[in-house]
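Hey, why these numbers?
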Amino acid sequence: MEIRVLRDKSVILTFLRKNKEIQFYLIGDLDDFFWPQTIWYCLTDKKNILSIALLYAGMEIPTLLLFYEGNPKYPMKLLKQIRQKLPARMFAHLSPGLIDIFGRQNIIHDYGLHFKMVLRKRPEEINDPNIRRLSEADLTSILDLYSVACQDNWFNEQILKTGKYFGYFIGKKLAGISGIHVYSKEFKVSALGNIATHPDYRGQHIAFKLTSVLCNDLIRDVELIGLNVKSDNEYAIKCYSRIGFETTGKYEEFLIRNS
């Protein structure tokens, strides 16, 4: 077995599609929007890829992603082999148990268990005049909303150029938003993110309406829509389930030191 750094999208995609309902984020990161900031490590027996880990360097603190189903033998071996190549400090999104390779004493912050969910049916059609597509012209309102509703979310304003963000307006005030973290027409995949409702307007099913509209819009371009949600966020899980999402996997999120 050997460790390689892959730069062949077709080879990576073939492996990821074997478990696409847990690998949708990584498939989306093959898109040209994210690709230049990615490093793809693989464990191979020279004939077959046995495990793939992605290091995404498009943020101030890099993020390591490694998800698997079944036997953890190869993912654990991969992490052990590449550990010395990884940053001294990073976010880690890992299938349960893999954090032990780094040692739990190296956890700076534990963000808890998260579920992966995938859309399995077409959402309800929503017609609400308060909903409209957002653009870069709405950036100030978007940042104001996130500052009070979702302070720790990851948001890259450049992704507004996709046109895959929708807002709910009460008068001129942005009361809710739904958007994406990953979107690729080429690879037919999207991962939802940055979904938030202003605290003053919660309980009015705004997130349900916005996310339904967003998913119906995405279905025109992609075949797989997924999202990550914290396992104890019962309200969000109930909302997504009502829209048509089903849980397909779980993973853990950490901020760690690699010492």
User: Anything to note?
Assistant: The chain has two domains: 2-114, 122-243. The mean pLDDT is 95.
